[in-house]
Amino acid sequence: MKAFIVKRYGKKEKLQLAETAEPIVKENDVLVQVYAGGVNLLDAKVRNGEFKLFLPYKTPFTLGHDVAGVVTKVGPRAIKFKVGDEVYARPADHRIGTFAEYISINENDVSLKPKNLSMEEAASIPLVGLTCWQALIEKANLKKGQKVFIQAGSGGVGTFAIQLAKHLGATVATTTSSANIDFVKSLGADTVIDYKNDDFETILKDYDVVLNSQDTKTLEKSLRILKPNGKVISISGPPDVGFAKQLGSPWFLNLIMKMLSLKINKKAKRLGVNYSFLFMRADGNQLTEITSLINAGIIKPVLDKVFPFEQTNEALAYVEAGRAKGKVVVKVK
């Protein structure tokens, strides 16, 4: 089968289109023929080697973290899906590889595709959907009437997070460029800050939750807009001890992650607020919950651009440029 592989780690390295063996279907797996794959900043970070410390993929490996497609084979112990089912998923870490014609995934990480979405729309959902679910529902326990600040509202995570937060009954503030102000308001944002002209720290205060996806400077400012015991959940780092425990890391990695997050944790403690890092995990049950929200029309996918499979490198470069309005997808079949 054809697949886009990482031959060597590096920012300047391009993915190589190669002929690879069809994936092995383990006893609890389903083999999915890939129709479309979502493209994420995470793909670029993995290719660059930024997560090598705790996700040491051995090169060469196939990249890609989002998939929508059709089940073509079922493992002997897999009982949740049958051949012909239209599904979507974010495969588990160490089992990624959606920039390919086929991928084998544990059935527990898979959900039936929302009925009202195309394959391309469905492929845009799993990673950002699970990220927002785990940040806002699991970690933040966001409640009706609370205030949440979601950075970069017109991006892949932002567009989903705004819709989910509004569904939960929260008041939402976000940042975007002036060109996208009406767009993020249409998703449900209550307060919109033009990040090029205004400083959110001077406008927002007494927030319950911040979903941080930006740099360290923005993260530190985010701590200061929280009310006492407020929570910053960061998907852009630095990783913390909680994440090391989630991975089941050895003691030295726990120590490294403690050191990486020491500065931000000290600042959070001084302000009486809480910091945590989120590296989302695959979860088919949560994805099924998300599916029900999509089928009910509560959350709608925001698709910026669909690239043909052969242009996967161009799609990744487009995402890295940071100007995508919603999600970017490659069409495989």
Give a quick set of tags describing it:
12 helices, 333 residues, single chain, 6-stranded parallel β-sheet, alpha/beta
Give an account of the 3D structure.
Helix 3 (126-139) crosses helix 4 (156-167) and helix 8 packs antiparallel against helix 9. The two termini are 12 Å apart. It contains twelve helices and 16 strands. It is globular. The chain is of the alpha/beta class and 333 residues long. The strands form three sheets. Strands 3, 5, 6, 7, 8, 15 and 16 form a seven-stranded mixed sheet that branches.
Short recap of the structure:
This protein is of the alpha/beta class. It contains 12 helices and 16 strands. The protein is globular and about 55 Å long.
List the helices and strands and how they pair.
Elements: E1 2-6, E2 16-19, E3 29-39, H1 41-48, E4 61-62, E5 67-74, E6 86-89, E7 102-106, E8 110-112, H2 119-123, H3 126-139, E9 147-150, H4 156-167, E10 171-176, H5 181-187, E11 191-194, H6 200-203, E12 207-212, H7 216-223, E13 226-234, H8 241-247, H9 251-260, H10 262-271, E14 274-277, H11 284-295, E15 303-308, H12 312-320, E16 327-331
Parallel strand pairs: 9-10, 9-12, 10-11, 12-13, 13-14, 15-16
Antiparallel strand pairs: 1-2, 1-4, 3-5, 3-7, 3-16, 5-6, 6-8
